[in-house]
Amino acid sequence: MFAVLCTIFAILVVFCLWVILYDTHHFVTVKYHFSSHLIKKPTRFIMISDLHNYQYGRENSQLLASIKKVEPDMILIAGDVITADRHEKFDKTIDFLKQLKEQYPVYYAYGNHEQKINLYKSYKDMGEHFEKALAQTGIKPLRNTHVSLADRGIAIYGLEIEHDYYKRFSVGSLPENYLEKLLGSPKTDVYSILLAHNPEHFPDYAKWGADLVLSGHTHGGIIRVPFLGGFISPSLQLFPKYDGGLFSEGKTSMVLGRGLGTHTPKVRLFNPAELIIVELQPESTGEESK
After folding, report:
1. How far is CA 130 from the centre of its chain?
2. Following DSSP, what letter does each residue of 121-147 receive, concatenated?
3. Is the pLDDT of residue 90 over 60?
4. Across the chain, what does the average pLDDT equal?
5. CA distances in angstroms from 145 to 107, 179, 209, listed in the order given
6. Distance of alpha carbon 2 from its chain centroid, rounded?
7. Which of 31, 62, 86, 103 could form a disulfide with 57 if both were Cys (CB 3.0 to 4.6 A apart)?
8. Range list of β-strands (E), 25-126
9. Beta bridge partners of residue 232, listed in sequence order
10. What's the distance, Cα to Cα, between the start and end of the chain in Å?
């Protein structure tokens, strides 16, 4: 009996190791559809989050090919395309962003990793080098500002909350009117998309008035446990509420990407990386649907 149990255990270990190897080096495409009377014409975009310098094929050829196949109208990035690590180079990530910018409009909001390299002296001049390299791609990050796409009936807001609100061991609300102080009030005559890296504050984003929130940060919980969801969040909460997928709060929807890369630990289990496609459609009835 003991030998049988050991054999079963060994098979499970080998199986999990194979899944980790596969999920950590593979991505899937996931589609979401939204409609609103505020949207003026069909719009398709790719959402990217948490790339963390990862490469799919030489010069990210696999990822670029998948994006090209979709024929998006634009690219929206919800943060952490790099990793805040002085031992990691971001040259290939910059090349990837440059290739995206040459083919599509790119709207990019920072995550906590882009934020950290500009905040702490331990990263030395990494932040300065990244900002200079990013500017050379032609991409101007949305740091608590927005762009209006009047022909599409869309406004895209890029939120950068203070690093203190990426807390460990607890999840709390943002201060009253915090988003209004950073972004102003959302436009009511267009479809407002909020790029907000940290999904833990989704109730605050909904209260602010976003129509659609695009988030990342949680990496799907790293390990997906059947029937329970993501195992752990970056704030070290077990089985977090916001782990990946689609969430709703009042009129607001949130697409939470499981990310394209990994960091600390660089593993995924039952949790492949995601390239997200979002389709927006006009709706003549005046009622929003998903």
Report:
1. 19
2. GGGTTHHHHHHHHHHHHT----SSEEE
3. yes
4. 91
5. 11, 11, 15
6. 46
7. 62
8. 27-36, 43-48, 74-77, 106-108
9. 238
10. 53
